[in-house]
Amino acid sequence: MTDIPLDDRGFTLGHGLFETVLWADGEFAYWDAHVERLERGCRAIGLPEPPRAEVIAAAEAALETVGKPARAAVRINWSAGSGARGLDPPAEFHPRLAATAVAQGRAPGSAQLATARVRRNDRSPTARIKSLSYLDNVLARAEARAAGADEALMLNTAGEVACCAAANVFWLRHDEVFTPDLECGVLDGIMRREVIAACYALGLPIHEVFANSGRLAGAPMFITNSLTGVRPVASLDGQKLPTSPLIAAIAKAVSRARR
After folding, report:
1. Can you give the pLDDT at residue 55?
2. Domain assignment of residue 33, given as a range
3. Position 4 in a domain
4. What value does the mean pLDDT take over residues 47-53?
5. Burial of 94 (0-12, 13-18, 19+ CB in 10 A)
6. What is the CATH number of the domain that holds 145?
């Protein structure tokens, strides 16, 4: 277990980044993509990039602490490190690397979504990185749970569909696939990229759009993240949604591409 000093900026200010990687079938899924996104995040907020050898070593050590199960969620934390009181960053960063692992069961079934009042701040740089400060997402998820759902649909400050608390969002209309544009304040998800690539491979039109929540009404939906892959949505705000065989086809194409 890593001791975190009380002056660590990740602890006091949420100043840092994280990645959550799936361990399955004896390997880290999309490892390079996760590390590259972590490095992009570092450049975006002015942190030094972690040495790749140290990142993989930390992830492997975390896996060993839980007995290296068949499936696990491995979280990499890259904090800005210790600093003086206040907001101003230190003249020289000494970032702190930590990793944890938790055994995972099989991916969950269909999701039930509830639209959260908490908005995604599309004007904030943190909307596009995996910041250690995830309080908006925490509050949105709690709101969804209170409404009897298991995941929150988040709109941005313009009222456009953005994402879920911990997933990207997709929907279908007339055998075409839609997902919010990154400029809606959307995280550039690893699985989001894989789904877009799968749609091209399957010959399915894929559109990155700016859309209000009315565009989702009655449409088959699915959500994605690195741990659950492609997950169909059963209902939105208590309204049952139709299914589509295209969702299973996309999930299968994504699964094949990983091998």
Report:
1. 98
2. 9-103
3. no
4. 97
5. exposed
6. 3.20.10.10
